[in-house]
Amino acid sequence: MTAEDSFGNPIDPVAGFARGTIITSATEEGLRLRNAQRIAAERVQAKGPESIAIFTGNQRNYPVHADDLTTLCEEWVGPGLFAPALRATGLAHLGGLGSDDVAVFNRTSAAIIATIVALVRDETVVSVVPAGGPSHASVGHGARLAGVEVLNVPVVEDWAEAIQTRRPKLVLVTTVTSSLERMDDADIRRVTALARELGAVTLLDEAYGARLRTALHGGTPSLQLGADLVVTNCDKAGLSGPRAGLLAGRPDLVARVSATGAGFGMEARAPIAAGALRSLEGYSPELLREEARAGQELAGALSKHYRDGVVRNSDLGPMIHEDDVLRDVLDRAGAPANEAAVVPCEASSALGVLLLRDHGILTVNTHGQPGARVSLRLKPTADAIHRVGGVTSVVEAVLSASKELAAVVTDRAAVAELVLGGNP
Amino acid sequence: MTAEDSFGNPIDPVAGFARGTIITSATEEGLRLRNAQRIAAERVQAKGPESIAIFTGNQRNYPVHADDLTTLCEEWVGPGLFAPALRATGLAHLGGLGSDDVAVFNRTSAAIIATIVALVRDETVVSVVPAGGPSHASVGHGARLAGVEVLNVPVVEDWAEAIQTRRPKLVLVTTVTSSLERMDDADIRRVTALARELGAVTLLDEAYGARLRTALHGGTPSLQLGADLVVTNCDKAGLSGPRAGLLAGRPDLVARVSATGAGFGMEARAPIAAGALRSLEGYSPELLREEARAGQELAGALSKHYRDGVVRNSDLGPMIHEDDVLRDVLDRAGAPANEAAVVPCEASSALGVLLLRDHGILTVNTHGQPGARVSLRLKPTADAIHRVGGVTSVVEAVLSASKELAAVVTDRAAVAELVLGGNP
């Protein structure tokens, strides 16, 4: 049985949302991103860099020092020069022991895929996830490339039975999802303990969790939760970027996964690994807590303009499910659901384009990679709210963009033009 | 029947060389690289950056401007800012048309793997290679991940029959291998023409070829050889680095392959794509010709010290097959072949370590990624020969390192210590 969204559109099981006639595949998601990059560039050229405010929940700055360019960023010699500092800083960040090791990948997705392909042969990957939250799309990609199945089990269901019966080589635990559903430390420990007892390797996907659990919820450092491997993201939740995946844990496993990843061209280039080091060095839990407070304030203000339950309040800011985005816009248009010319993901993308083009609000709805989720998410970074003119201005921008989208939501061509621009 | 090297060791069909008891898998190749990075870093710390000379045939500098760090290298907005210049410069470099498009990957390997996985379902990939030269290891990796076979056909054999009978969706042409075996332009055109006639997409692996064919052999620009897609490397043959894969050609295919690659975390980060742009902008065919002349001179001088035929002269410098490296070292030790404690790839790695540690000569024998070839290759970049003290000093370094290796070649533990250092 194919799952459907609340409009009756069939959900693409890989993407986790319904595709339409504009966003038919990952290829159009890529074109959507390129169109958005063009729109952002035009805005910067016309109004300057301060005219863009990042609401994706993560900065992607590049904090290397000018001195690093000819030393650490040179790839034959540089990685040897920064290896000791990277290891020390990475392990301190994740609460690792002296015997643990680290490696930097081009993305967290790359590290997850390389782990699955390196460690699994024919066995099902058991993936334990927070209640209500799926694992990242890269888990499915990795399993397909390895030619194995993934069994996603919410932590509130019988994950123990899944591990006992499937006897996986690899148990993957998503501690915090990209929508910020979160697993308790006690649950994480129970999963890693059983997996270890039964001889499985455990990988914690701590892309957000490494800092969100610890800085906002007083959680235990990542490498002290009983897992063999942990991966986090150098541009999420209090880290400044660049985007990169930091893998850490048992040195023999880090070496195996790194070798597999290097064969696939997934390792971080020296300039990125050097940037990851600078990002880790600059980590500030207080800045993360400040961003979380700003997100809460924005969620509170936005929710007054929507029916109860529509605006969900995550740790880092408000979210509106893509179905609710389309429903809201149709309501504003006075149009019944069957007159929608688009599916929910296309509506939330178009809304993202209007927020970006007319208000400088940059979201994952325009700038996510293929595979990113499609709910409207506003996670303000550093001075993002200030750049737009305050919380009220951000709320007004969302409402204004929603009205503008309502005017074209029954016109497929107009929405396609917004989402894909001049692209085919 | 398993192929064997000239010592009777079975050749690993994936790696293309025989594995031993020190380098048993790609994991040890990764440890070999980390050990070498540590050795290079120690030398730089003791004797300064000028004490290392790059003989890998490619620079891996990072030529972004200080101004780029907060603009082009910021990943939300930067890629939109440099996209027009990247496209124009990339297409000019490859002889593309206005209708072609470009995308930058984290490595050429990543672009090749993403192409295979994106475009192939169940069909065999037909891979046409120069006489005597295999395709890159990434072709095999991509096919395994896609769950399909690769048929490698030398261009001197009946590749046309292979294409006609297999009816591939994808024909891959390696124009110049990493050992610099080269295919004629006329042959490349014949392959792309037949593939096109039979409806297959063609990808040219022009990692080296884009510049080696054109600047040294008067060849046709890459995108004018009838292929749908071309990939080249931003740190090879006259480009300064960073390492990155530039994919170019039909825009619909570039979009598909890019979307697949992005799902796997294989796309170039903004700082790398910005570096690739600067690398392409700085391309100098004359510098490449100068490096080629230096390589020829070195090959001539080195060959006087070896039996006829042992030193092969490539476009960019001398090469000695790994079997000949081990045989030479055994001869110097006065030891028969059956007393060798190591296989040829371990001997050439150990020789690379001695060249690096004692003479500052950095080669792929120490610094290649897992999967790299293992013959001794000396391809001097820019001022590499000058840094060592001239051609005679480089030759003396090779002879001196060979003597030193001869003293331990029957001692497995000593060779392991050289190759892997303190690693397990």
TrEMBL record, chains A, B:
Keywords: Pyridoxal phosphate. Residues 104-279 form the Aminotransferase class I/classII large domain. GO terms for molecular function: L-seryl-tRNA(Sec) selenium transferase activity; pyridoxal phosphate binding. Pfam families: Aminotran_1_2. It comes from the Bacteria. Its cofactor is pyridoxal 5'-phosphate. PANTHER family: L-SERYL-TRNA(SEC) SELENIUM TRANSFERASE. This is L-seryl-tRNA(Ser) seleniumtransferase. It comes from Saccharopolyspora spinosa.
